[in-house]
Design goal:
Blueprint (H helix, E strand, L loop, with lengths): L1 E5 L6 H7 L4 E5 L7 H7 L5 E4 L7 H5 L6 E4 L9 H6 L3 E4 L5 H16 L2 H9 L17 E5 L3 H12 L3 E5 L15 E3 L2 H7 L2 E4 L13 H4 L7 E4 L8 H9 L5 E4 L19 E3 L8 H19 L19
Parallel strand pairs: 1-2, 1-3, 3-4, 4-5, 6-7, 6-9, 7-8, 9-10, 10-11, 11-12
Helix pairs in contact: 1-11, 5-7
Bound molecules: D-malate.
Length: 327
Amino acid sequence: MKKILVTEAVTGAAMDQLRASSDLEVALEPDLWRDPDALARAIQTADALIVRNQTQVTADLIQTAPRLQIIARAGAGLDNVDTDAASAAGIVVSSAPSENSLSVAELAIGLFLALARHIPSANQDVQEGNWNRTRFTGSELSGKTLGIVGAGRIGTLVAQRAKAFGMTLIVHDTFVDPHAPQYAGLDLSFVEMDELLSRSDFVTVHLPLLPETRGLFTSALFEQMKPTAYFVNTSRGKVVDEAALAHALDQGCLAGAALDVREVEPPSPGNPLAGSDRVIFTPHIAAFTREAQERVVAAVCRDASAVLRGDEALGYFNFARPKRAFT
Ligand code: MLT
């Protein structure tokens, strides 16, 4: 029987249905990503691998998987999968590229509001028995300038929602066509990064992790922001140099930040931003809504079972069918 190895917590109705299949065995081992040796042993007999973002699917791991036909990533980013090595081995790589975009966009909007209205610190203060109303005077989003770095699916969804809040939208993305139909009616101004940073009241990042985006946000960029501005990252932690952000916050180059993603996840206790009261932290939950997870889990279960049954993966990144023979 073909075996699907699941190395992180990928659960829900579609997974239950997959586990009930009579022709496929599902090994659901949500903590296996923590133990590379056990993972390397388990993958030797796997025909499909389902992961989130914590399993490091390296070239070495792929070499130890002679039967593997598909790596299905329950999420959008493929930065934890060596896609070149998988493609060279003839293994399908598939993902759920748009299934969680709306949830990520909504969290970004939530973080703008949380920063602008000091919601986490006001909550903390009331929990401590206080009632300090003027201390938490905030600002409206309406009339403020939002700088969107990365105008792909998520950046565009953020733009649509921010427009409804009455924000002025400026965008930096050198890979997209500013005249593409999805931008019609959004009143976006495409600008250089320098201009975006110096004009924005909120900067929101929606970039994939690529060699050219790794460590992009350094001191030189934070120093160009307004001292009253906020920085929000719901994309990938490694696009930000956290030591540079901590220094910029200390120097008053910007007013605050909200980070759903971190350079190292989970962050080590001694990381440069540990304990910062100018930053709102969430534990990489942008995609964690019931709706998004239902869509994401359905997509990866569909692709894993399709490939093992000789059909095509729909969310494929490289090719729809494996290029190695079934054993
Ligand atoms: C994604 O890439 O889809 C999100 O960041 C969620 C995740 O990494 O699992």
